[in-house]
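>> received
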Amino acid sequence: MSQAARDETPELAVQDAARLASGNRAFACDLYRVLASESENLFFSPYSISLALAMTYAGAAGDTQSEIHDVLHFDLEEPLLHTAFDVTNRELQRRANQLDSDRAGGEGFQLSILNQAWGQKGFEFAGDYLDVLAQHYGSGLYLIDFAQNASRQTINHWVANKTGGRIVDLLPAQAISARTRLVLTNAVYFKASWFDTFKPEDTTAATFHAPQAERSVKMMQRTLLSRFVETAEFQALELPYASHDVQMLVISPAPEMFAAVSGSLDAQHLRLIESTLRFTDVTLSMPRWSFSSDLDLKPALEALGLHAAFAADADFSRLSSAGDELFVSGVFQKAFVAVDEQGTEAAAASGVVVTTKSDVAPASAVMTLDRPFLFVIYDKPTLQVLFIGQLVDPSRG
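>> returned
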């Protein structure tokens, strides 16, 4: 167990915070393009995945470390990278206490980000590695016996508790075995009212043009002054939450343009969209929606070039003196989102499972969101993408 106390006053230069945000945004868009399908809803938290893999990265060496560095766009060197995550987490956590002065009582905004490491009883972890988890991620090491069936339930119960019951069974039955040595988890919970809510009495029945068929939806409606842009390819609109620093960016591709817009979404394109938004009176129609995603991220991460961490010759020598016997057997995330007249509830949890190698497993405008669209929930001061997704068919839960 680490005896190191968490650094309560970490410092980070503005340019280094910007580099972390830029790298995390690049990874968010890379992963979105790999996971997205024209016919399926998608929702996930790239920030949660980056956090979980940053904790993994702290124990990696050699080619394993290099690949995680490149795929995750970790452009800051250690220990500055871990300091940057620590400072960013603290900044995000403060959002709930930084509501605009005209929002009396700070109602309608919750954001929590929590990390937890789970280690096999009797396994020797490197002290320096545990110090990184304690000092920069606020995570001690909870000792557990992975040979016991209750170990998975213990972890999944922690996740459910930290996400308001929205994320259950993060780790599937096959994820944990007697040879598991470490599980790194992150949980993000977000619940926020719109800065200006929709009136329920204005919600009407409408048609959403999904790829396979037309769907009947409840369409919320309001007119607002907000930052908006329209091009031949798409419309985009910012919707602020009760903490004005956090926004939902909605990107609605023009008819027949969904594949082109979603396929070209990268960090540079996202930044370009944000830079072109201008305040406009917009008549907005947006459906209520809620759905969840259950992702085995190993295939997607391999598609992005991360192979060494999953291979028999993975190098986690900074994690343990037995690190050359370890590999990542799975990376999982579950996420949930619900959007209605009052605001948004979103939750996500990520888990990285580290196992011994003998257990290898395979101006004025109208915006009507009545066809597939993309959405991004991000924190403006830190530029961190908290969640990203697409609504293709609102009839699917």
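>> The CA atoms of residues 209 and 371 lie 5 Å apart.
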